[in-house]
Amino acid sequence: MSYNKTPSITAETINQKVRMFTYEPCGGIVRHAQRLEQEIYENPGSLPFQEIIYCNLGNPQALGQRPIKFFREGVRSLREAVADGIAARDGFPSIPDSIFLTDGASSAINMMMQILIRSHEDGILCPLPEYPLYSGSIILHGGTMVPYNLTEDSGWGLEIFEVKSCLEEARASGLTIRAMVVINPGNPTGQVLSMTNQEEIVEFCRKEGVVILADELYQENVYTENKRFNSFKKVARSLGYDHKEISIVSFHSVSMGYYGECGRRGGYMEICGFGADVIDEIYKLASLTISPNIAGQILISLVMDPPKLGDGAFEIFMAEKEETCSSLLKRAKTLHKAFSSLEGVSCNKFEGAMYLYPRLQLPPSAIKAAEKERVNPDVFYVHRLSATGIVVVPGSGFDPVSGKSHFRCTILPGEDKITAMVPRLRAFHEAFMDEFRS
Amino acid sequence: MSYNKTPSITAETINQKVRMFTYEPCGGIVRHAQRLEQEIYENPGSLPFQEIIYCNLGNPQALGQRPIKFFREGVRSLREAVADGIAARDGFPSIPDSIFLTDGASSAINMMMQILIRSHEDGILCPLPEYPLYSGSIILHGGTMVPYNLTEDSGWGLEIFEVKSCLEEARASGLTIRAMVVINPGNPTGQVLSMTNQEEIVEFCRKEGVVILADELYQENVYTENKRFNSFKKVARSLGYDHKEISIVSFHSVSMGYYGECGRRGGYMEICGFGADVIDEIYKLASLTISPNIAGQILISLVMDPPKLGDGAFEIFMAEKEETCSSLLKRAKTLHKAFSSLEGVSCNKFEGAMYLYPRLQLPPSAIKAAEKERVNPDVFYVHRLSATGIVVVPGSGFDPVSGKSHFRCTILPGEDKITAMVPRLRAFHEAFMDEFRS
User: Fold this and answer.
1) Which residue among A175, B192, B232, B267 has its CA within the 20 to 30 Å range from the CA of A189?
2) Residue A144: pLDDT above 80?
């Protein structure tokens, strides 16, 4: 691992609270022992003992269940599987030491915010609408969210000159811009960024010395023929930029895709373009919660290294995957058609992720009624809708301004449920409009 | 849930960064829907629909696997099992709504530090030696650690008048003392607090309005006939103090005990004596990482609600538990005897937890050699020891001062490994002492 030529993120410029604490149970002595263990593995007989006895951690799986090998070699091989999967996906190398396995993507995102944010003078570029984990985590770690707008009229695309002007304005106000969050495919918006758009983002972040925090959780959920998923790392490498020239962190999870194993809490982040000393600090920070759960670690490695042609499991796996993906698309189409047909509702194209994000044009008297209840119009509508047993998320949870006229609806309920839901939704909406039209 | 009469921890006095963010995907509308669902469950037919369709979260287990019921009713019943187990253990009631299931105890501890700490002017009383998750988490969240000493000569007991003077000194310097961490049974020290000592702590924290953060991870690891584990909540209730009079958070985990399932990342915290608005903020903070892993949630409920006399699994379960516990004790005794017999090494009594914390009196020339290498004497010794394949943790990782003459060793390697380790340890130590004695 080597440094950026002019790295914006160094051990000196991360959140110094992370550097200040020590955590010896997973500290220097343990890593020294791991090197000895590797030495025994590679050159048997080279040391005067055959195995390491780990008396450092209160990990009772050492009770004769051979967990030590599992934690050491086992976990290493899981990270290798993930790195291999990334390399196969992108056509560019990935190294296991750049992979951190995590309990879902959320804990990885929180960890990176904790590393990057030193004070409220550190700004993070973040889309609006956004998944509120980002704004929440930025606020929680004491930073400043610097929003940039996605524009509904261009299919929730991103205008790089607007992002640039957000960055410049933020800098003029005294902020240091540390990173740019990009959610692709989009949540809640369901868009898939074009290659051109991604290239612009890479050029911009490289030039400005801004880390790309790439939410790539929905990389397997692309439903349009015209676009495909490209990781930001692939885009950067395709443009000829290596780890010395741009810093990218990619987040992924077992919760999405065609697998949807939320309850397993498996995930990884791939960290590219940071110095070894920063990686050490991230490792220490990760050690504070000991380790992600093993089942989730195994699952994310399987997600990234699925059965291949010729493997025994291949056919059933492909059939299941295909069935799930085509069912998801079918459900999305049904819901999209239903929303689009409602009075005063328009609905964006559905390209990826798992959400529709319809726009509501409510009658003025409905907006007044919401005001009277001191809630946003979207909350008012969504709350009324919930009285029919249908739960969606108010748009203002994703964007305090434009969200007031939106809500987010997953495409995930089973086909039969969606079929049953559509007439209920229609009846509710018609009654709602009738009530407030006059 | 009701408030302390003069609660030190209210929604107004927690870390305001937690209050500042919103997280709608798990927000008000969802809790409203959950109330509707409860209504359907309790009074079937009372609402014009039979089930809630959750279109709010991108949780694809809704893909026909009936996960919604599991997440809602299932998880409720897991928390009920934990609460029942606590009630059975303590003889005092515990309510499911006070239980937060977590990915191991570490994430729960981090979450509470994040809630309690507003700035570096907030102090947390913390023992020395301590498990460095505490100091790490306090620093990470921007607070000030206020150490109190455990004294080796009294078997790592705690003198309440000393804690009081630490608190007063800290207050005089402008700090607000928010909480007191107590690790019982102790890590790294292996002591079990006496009932009298626990009562003093409860009286002290109640009087001073200080939250008790009770690390009760080793509650099943008590090996002495003379003492037993008592939760701080039980001690407080036995003294007649209810949730209005004292705030206690108890942490537990599947990683310790006779089960030792570290890799599962299961845990809970029981939160007593906080207002409902504080609980709401903790719920929101917990939602930022979505949920703990399901397997870990199930496991912690089983840990707290193990097979009972008459259950089919009871006999095998008891036999396994007994076998593990007696083997742990045997290993502890072997190691204790070995350490105690070494020149210049003394070793504390082993009462509980999973650690021995021997004291090293190294020859002056060894200390000089350490100085020359610019490391603490404990690190110097431990590093040398690791060259024999035995890994322990330097004491300075638990206490920067007294730790320089200690190291922590788990009792967890299998009996055969411990038997093999003792002569290696002895040979190393003798050679080490010979080298530096002159």
Assistant:
1) A175
2) yes
